[in-house]
Amino acid sequence: MTAEPDALAVVNQLRDRPGRDPMNRRAIVQDQGCLPGLILFLDHPTLSGVLSALLALRYLAECRANREKLKGDWG
């Protein structure tokens, strides 16, 4: 088994957690590894991987307090 399904599973969790519980949105953005990983996933070879990352980022951006951090990480 390759590492790819594991990475996709993590992205799917990052997509699902903020969608189910908005209180998770700030904690996810504060984690140093989450945002860079989601941003890298925007170049995933499968459409489902890209869509999962985009949806996760959308949920995170719905929290106003996260927007400055998101803008900073995106350059």
TrEMBL record:
Question: Do you know which InterPro entries this protein is assigned to?
Answer: ARMC1
Q: Where in the cell is it found?
A: Membrane
- GO cellular component terms attached to this protein's record: membrane
Which terms are listed as keywords in the entry?
Membrane
UniProt region (Disordered), positions on chain: 1-22
Q: What is this protein called?
A: Armadillo repeat-containing protein 1
Task: Please name the source species.
Answer: Collichthys lucidus
Q: What is the lineage of its organism?
A: Eukaryota, Metazoa, Chordata, Craniata, Vertebrata
